[in-house]
Amino acid sequence: MKRVIFFIIVLFSVLACVNEVALPVVTNFRTEIVKNDKTVPVKVKIINTTDGADTYKWTFNGGIPATSDAKNPGVITYEKEGEYILKLEASNRDGSVDIKEEKIVVKPAVNIDFKVEVLENNFSPVTVKLINTTTGATTYDWFFQGGLPNTSKKQHPENIVFTSAGKHKIILKVSNGEEEYVLEKEIEVAPLLKANFEYSVPFEDDDYQVPVKVSFKNKSVSATAYQWTFEGANITQSTNENPEIILENPGIYNLKLKASNSKNEKIVSKTITVYENTNLRVFKDIKLGINTSHKNNNIGAYFSTVTRKVYTQNEITSEIGKDIDIVFFGLNESFTFNKFISPDKAQTLAFEEIPNAIATKLINKQESCNCSTSVSVASFDAMQNDTFLKNLNVNETVEGLKEFDSLTKPRIIVFETADKRKGAIKIKEFVKDGLNSYIIVDIKIQKEAK
Q1: Which helix (H) or strand (E) holds 14?
Q2: What are the backbone dihedrals phi and psi of residue 87, each rounded to the nearest 5 degrees, phi first?
Q3: Sequence-ordered alpha helix ranges (H) in 21-102
């Protein structure tokens, strides 16, 4: 019995000793950067893995919130760059205390931007000044497509020079040590300066016989100023972009343009040759259709010495009608009945009436006109100016207006337009082609009545 009582006493003593041993606190936690974004605002998630603690005292210097007594405080936000200490002081009822600290580095937010300033103008060579307004970055990598230099690692690089025409990219890559940002902009360099021009003359001056009006179309590239020189013209100098001049004397003229911008100048020269005024307009190989060809709108029977065109029936308008000088009537492909008639009398020979028609005096048959007019094939071919025509009297008679056949070839028809210009027609060929038969003629006429 005494032995049993002894063991009971010893057991209680042992148990009493065990209850008096305090449990230790082992403080531990880990952090996770939300979305791995280490630039402000930075959000830090706290995962508490502490053992043996009953109470927790968190301190987040600079964070939101700044303190917490929760076992798991959740997510802490840092809105300013810097280095911060996260501190946990954990304890239990036995008085055990343990502390852990961890440093968090918060990078500044990166705002990438830069300005491109073109110095002077965008004519090659172009000098570009870069103004870097990026904030929060610690490294800078510049790339200048086609530039000199073509790269730089400076925060504020030196001026860049671009010489080749076209669009050029300027690329900036920056980093704050954690994240990289890229911004791209573009500049355009105008093409290299080039001087060039074209010139043209009006329709009525296309034989380049004086006086000739010359109009210029400037084709220069990247030019801002123009200096023209026209020696011998009615004006010898001009600064207009597209000037006009008049050349009043026959000869070869030198046309010179100096095109420039603020950085360069180029010169181009061309020549133009103008001729003595013969006052003679020459038309060769004109086709005039017989009646059926004209009405079927295949080969016209109307000709204008003003517009220099042949017209079929369906092409005649009131505007065109007033310019028709010559009307040919061919009865059929055998050419037994042919006649040139005045436009204002076209309706008398199976044609429709020509609107706004004018009168032309004609001699179809010089051999029977009983008039003083005489134009031979040789004199027609020899005409180099209007001297012969100027002295010609076109005496229209009944016999001279009569029809002719195809037996005489070449045949010369003499005429005088409503505005007193004198001319002659040489029929060279009578071409049989069924309903589309036609004649081939040459025409010589004064450009102006004199």
Answers
A1: helix 2-19
A2: -130, 135
A3: none
Is 302 in contact with 327 (CB distance < 8 Å)? yes
In this prediction the pTM is 0.69
Spell 123-132 as b/e; 16+ CB within 10 A means b. Answer: bbebebebeb
Q: Which amino acid is at 328?
A: F
Q: Cα–Cα distance between 214 and 177 in angstroms, integer?
A: 69
Domains observed in the chain: 29-106 (2.60.40.10), 114-189 (2.60.40.10), 197-274 (2.60.40.10), 280-446 (no CATH)
What is the per-residue pLDDT for 17? 44
Cα 435 from chain centre? 50
Q: To which residue do tokens 């600064």 refer?
A: 239
Structure tokens, 5? 């009582």
CA distance 249 to 307: 26
Joined tokens for residue 249: 């004397």
Phi/psi at 348 (5° precision): -80, -10
- Residue 20: the pLDDT is 54
308 contacts: CB under 8 Å, gap ≥ 6: 283
Averages of pLDDT over runs of 10 residues in the chain (450 residues) are: 48 47 89 88 93 94 94 93 93 93 89 95 94 95 97 97 95 92 96 96 96 97 97 96 97 98 96 97 98 97 98 96 98 97 96 97 95 94 97 94 96 98 98 98 96
Q: How far apart are CA 122 and CA 290, in angstroms?
A: 65
Beta-bridged to residue 339, according to DSSP, are: 329
Q: How buried is 442 (Cβ within 10 angstroms: 0-12 exposed, 13-18 middle, 19+ buried)? A: middle
Q: How far apart are CA 277 and CA 447, in angstroms?
A: 10
Map residue 376 onto helix, strand or coil.
coil
Question: Phi then psi for 285, rounded to 5 degrees?
Answer: 55, 45
Q: How far is CA 117 from the centre of its chain?
A: 25
Dihedral of the alpha carbons of 289, 292, 294, 298, in degrees to the nearest 10: -80
pLDDT in tens, 339-365: 999 999 999 998 999 999 999 999 999
Q: What are phi and psi of 5, to 5 degrees?
A: -60, -40
Cβ neighbours, 10 Å, residue 41 = 13
